[in-house]
Design goal:
single chain, mainly beta, Jelly Rolls, 8-stranded antiparallel sheet, 5-stranded antiparallel sheet
């Protein structure tokens, strides 16, 4: 009887273990929302600590919150915006987006609300994810980035702007319209809502 009870208890303990959610799983290269020693030495700054939205200004009505170490939204239209402008920089950001969402990473934002006319918008929306809106023709062969974690690497230096998604270059343009401004993260562009998450937001001035 004791052996049977021990077996049942073991099954209950094993079956009750919770696996980390997709949002909780750290990236392959280390702890989420932290700088490596090499990044710190190279001048990178962490823009999201994984616990609060401190350091970001909320615009609009999106339901931004911190969930499982990510900046998360599921409905509403709005932005998270850095109070500090950036001119020449490298930006890294991990994102996870559902199929229905229209989101993006906006850089060098000018006056007024963030948008493709006042900022460079790096798209997060279905098959167009990875494009620079209104700056380049829609390229072919864009990687499938929906429903999984991806990493954007965005570099702006003078009039040269490049975008990489998971190491693949999706934009490489020369454009002189915008020279400096805040960084913004979007939920609900064109009233297309859905789950979007951001983490590992890091910037390095050039």
């Amino acid at each position: 009887m004791l052996r049977v009870f021990s077996l049942i208890l073991t099954l209950v303990i094993v079956g009750g273990e919770s696996r980390p959610s997709q949002a909780q799983q750290p990236p392959a290269d280390g702890t989420p929302n932290a700088l490596s020693a090499g990044e710190a030495a190279a001048g990178w700054t962490l823009l999201f600590d994984g616990r609060t939205l401190s350091g970001w200004t909320q615009l609009g009505e999106a339901d931004w919150r911190v969930e499982d170490g990510t900046m998360t939204a599921t409905k509403g239209t709005g932005f998270l915006v850095t109070p500090k402008p950036y001119e020449n920089f490298e930006l890294k950001v991990d994102f996870w987006a559902s199929e229905t969402v229209n989101s993006g990473v906006f850089v060098r934002c000018g006056e007024g609300n963030p948008g493709p006319r006042t900022c460079y918008e790096v798209q997060i929306a279905g098959e167009t994810t990875g494009t620079l809106v209104n700056v380049q023709p829609l390229p072919s062969g864009l990687p499938n980035a929906i429903g999984k974690w991806n990493t954007y690497e965005i570099r702006a230096e003078g009039d040269h702007v490049t975008v990489k998604i998971n190491g693949t270059t999706t934009a490489d343009v020369r454009d002189q319209r915008l020279t400096s401004g805040p960084i913004a993260l979007q939920e609900g562009g064109l009233a297309a809502f859905g789950l979007v998450r951001f983490r590992n937001v890091k910037v390095r001035p050039l």
